[in-house]
Design goal:
Elements: E1 7-8, H1 9-15, H2 21-29, E2 33-35, E3 38-39, E4 46-47, E5 54-56, E6 59-60, E7 69-74, E8 102-104, E9 111-118, H3 121-128, E10 136-143, H4 150-156, E11 158-160, E12 163-165, E13 169-176, E14 179-186, H5 193-200, E15 207-213, E16 216-217, E17 226-228, H6 231-240
Parallel strand pairs: 9-15
Antiparallel strand pairs: 1-4, 2-3, 2-5, 5-6, 7-9, 7-17, 8-9, 10-14, 10-15, 11-12, 13-14, 15-16
The protein binds uracil (URA).
């Protein structure tokens, strides 16, 4: 690797979630960072994030090259955790990669659909933190007929037990007789939020599936299967939360 190749050490550290670039520069200046076993004091040092072995205070730093990003289609009846002490089916049943992954947020056990899995703590934190307002889109089956102004009411917002809630977008996706499939987008993640919101306006949810999480779409991924996100999708996820 020549002088101008690679990525600046403070950038690699910041992207690995160690802290702001400024903070990472301080760590380097204080001699707390090693690359391939050698202490580094120079801020401008460039490293190859795919191969450099970096430690801060003796603790191994997982660089982005070691981060993994997947989408899984959680089937209905499966808990949204990687294991379940009560022996119920969990996401672990469907994860067929060796890395230790964690789920980004949750879905109700009887909701199916898109869950992101990763070992990237900073990204996961931002994707689930309310201040980043990442949008999620769901398909909900309700019993019609529904009034013309339902979308308007949901976008205007309703008051739930724990405060106001509203949809960003709402549309009828499909209709077979009285069974109506509606698509609803929100940018929050309170527990049972879609079910509570639709119940409040008089349309209890019969079935629910999440089909989008921020820029990521479930697409044709079958229930119980997972796929690695593309480099482009990971880039879009980062962009969506200011990383
Ligand atoms: N809203 C719900 O009601 N349930 C989910 O699983 C996700 C959002």
């Amino acid at each position: 690797m020549t002088e101008n190749e690679g990525v600046r050490l403070q950038k690699v550290l910041a992207e690995a979630g160690i802290g702001s670039r400024r903070h990472c520069e301080e760590l380097i200046g204080e001699g707390r960072v090693t690359v391939d076993g050698k202490k580094v004091f120079r801020f401008g040092e460039r490293v190859d994030p795919r191969s450099a072995v970096i430690h801060v205070d003796g603790k191994r730093v997982e660089t982005r090259a070691e981060m993994r990003y997947y989408a899984i289609n959680k089937p209905r009846g499966v808990v949204s955790t990687m294991s379940d002490e009560r022996g119920r089916k969990s996401l672990a049943e469907y994860v067929d990669v060796p890395e230790r992954l964690f789920h980004v947020g949750r879905l109700d056990t009887d909701t199916e659909g898109l869950i992101l899995l990763t070992n990237d703590g900073e990204l996961s934190h931002r994707l689930t933190h309310p201040s980043y307002g990442v949008s999620k889109t769901y398909l909900a089956e309700i019993h019609g007929p529904i009034p013309r102004d339902l979308g308007r009411r949901l976008r205007a917002g309703v008051t739930l037990d724990d405060g106001p809630a509203k949809a960003d977008k709402f549309r009828i996706f499909d209709q077979v007789g009285k069974r109506i499939l509606v698509e609803i987008t929100l940018h929050e993640g309170r527990k049972h939020i879609v079910r509570r919101l639709l119940k409040e306006v008089g349309f209890p949810v019969q079935q629910l599936a999440r089909i989008e999480f921020g820029p990521i779409r479930l697409g044709s991924l079958k229930p119980g299967t997972m796929r690695a996100l593309t480099v482009q999708e990971v880039g879009e996820l980062y962009k969506s939360v200011g990383l």
